[in-house]
DNA sequence: CGCACTTAGTTCCTTGAGGGAACCCTTAAT
DNA sequence: ATTAAGGGTTCCCTCAAGGAACTAAGTGCG
């Protein structure tokens, strides 16, 4: 747990932070995305403390981002993404885009994405759900919504 | 500073985390986006400790996400988004979308975005930069890139 | 001039989360 | 009966977060 409860704030950024804002959480979701699903595998891949890994996994399961699923005959468990968790990957993919652009340096991006639909190496482009044109922060007015505070 | 240096990892998610992964950083960027640019305004709006605010602002300036800009005659400063910082807002907007969908509850989203191009209330939709079709995590193959480790 | 006010930090102290290592428990194979 | 693997717990130490008080530079006012 972080000191501050971001999840309580009337802001979707803060609330999202309440789910994956703690250190390691985003990387755990990434690992599970690419098929690293078991406790020991995660611990080895990330080099995270087992204590913290336990806390993060429990929190992500509580938040309904991950699902703890038994496998095999013995009491063994794997973690899988829920629908909610799968949609969270859109956020991670936009982080990948930004990191690829601004933080890769000479070496170039660590991974590439090939889009099934067109077969091209590509990246995510944020577009308007209504008209399909590019939609960046400068392209919108921010208005109070129904769930606004006071 | 976090205990672990995420910025050193060969992963754009981890590297992005190295820039905005510390508690409060994303909300500071959000505030500056909506026009809250001065130290005391930020401190009052967020309810963050002044010490931590100083640390976060310095870090974001070092990472070239924010720019410290004097205003008026006296030694007073405002923080502004750089180009790098502005592009980071794409990540925040995708967090908004996910938070709006999954964490808003009955009340509905706290804020709405009106797209300049079409005038509609809309949200960001991740699309392929190559073909323009929807591009989510399930729609891609992940391949090693030129900057991959070993 | 002297004082208060504003803005932007800095310093100090306490608490609690992160990291690491060692330990525990269940089931199965030898 | 012993060992190994998987999946955690427990314990301790350190260091960052939070909060409150203090500093410092420049301005306006009486």
UniProtKB/TrEMBL annotation, chains A, B:
Domain HTH hxlR-type: 11-107
A GO molecular function held by the record: DNA binding
The protein's name: HxlR family transcriptional regulator
Gene3D superfamilies reported for this sequence: Winged helix-like DNA-binding domain superfamily/Winged helix DNA-binding domain
Domain of life: Bacteria
Acetylation in keyword set: no
Alphabetically ordered keywords of this record: DNA-binding, Transcription, Transcription regulation
Pfam families for this protein: HxlR (PF01638)
SUPFAM superfamilies documented for this protein: Winged helix' DNA-binding domain
């Amino acid at each position: 747990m972080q000191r501050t409860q971001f999840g309580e704030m009337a802001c979707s950024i803060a609330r999202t932070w309440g789910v994956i804002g703690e250190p390691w959480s985003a990387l755990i979701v990434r690992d599970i995305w690419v098929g690293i699903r078991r406790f020991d595998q995660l611990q080895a891949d990330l080099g995270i403390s087992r204590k913290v890994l336990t806390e993060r996994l429990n929190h992500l399961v509580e938040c309904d981002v991950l699902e703890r699923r038994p496998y095999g005959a013995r009491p063994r468990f794997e973690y899988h993404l829920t629908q909610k968790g799968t949609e969270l990957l859109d956020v991670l993919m936009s982080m990948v885009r930004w990191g690829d652009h601004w933080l890769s340096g000479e070496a170039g991006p660590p991974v590439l994405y090939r889009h099934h639909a067109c077969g091209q190496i590509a990246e995510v482009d944020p577009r308007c759900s209504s008209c399909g044109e590019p939609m960046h922060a400068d392209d919108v007015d921010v208005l109070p919504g129904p769930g606004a505070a006071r």
